[in-house]
TrEMBL record:
Pfam families: TetR_N
Protein name in the entry: HTH tetR-type domain-containing protein
InterPro entries reported for this sequence: Homeodomain-like_sf, HTH-type_Tx_Regulator, HTH_TetR
Keyword rRNA processing: no
SUPFAM superfamilies, per the entry: Homeodomain-like (SSF46689)
Highest taxon, organism lineage: Bacteria
Signal sequence, start to end: none
Ranges annotated as DNA-binding: 23-42
Organism: Sporomusa silvacetica DSM 10669
Residue span(s) of domain HTH tetR-type: 1-60
UniProt cross-references to PROSITE patterns, sorted A to Z: HTH_TETR_2 (PS50977)
Amino acid sequence: MSEHDLIKIASKHFLQFGYDGTKLSHIAQAAGMKKQSLYFHFKNKDDLLLQVNKTVIEEEIDFLQFFFSKNIDLSLKDTLYLLLLDYKRRYLTNDNNGFMFLLTFIPPDSLQNYFSQNYHLFLTNLKNLLQPKFLEEKNLRINPDDGPTSFITLLDGLFTQLIFETPKDFDNSLRIFWDIYWNGLIKK
């Protein structure tokens, strides 16, 4: 089994059971190997967790770059709304988002700085990709430099709905807050 496959299995376990509840023996069993074989790939549970996080952050940054290059011609409004919908879809179909958000906000104490730094790397990439879209918009009520932060705050709030509530709650909150958010950004 490849290291990438082991990382995917481990990601599911960390997401489902948290750091403390995840057992290397269960990951090995799910991978069809003995626990000792995991040590060929990873030094210990912390090393495995760090490798999962590194992979998740890289994949999420790759997704962002792909999303913005694919949607380069969309308006700011369409880009932001589509990105929210894509993140909901990714959360429901891909463990990366749940892992990234949950472990960033509830990391093991000993690794808190590491997770914060990596999430900051993700946010910096997102802000850098959003910035040109906000600069293109001629009718902004806010400083374009504040636009990416305002959007990330909305994204974080909506993800709380997915993580701690339901997709239906996400949809309802998006329906309510999108109109307020967008009308707060644009001059009438």
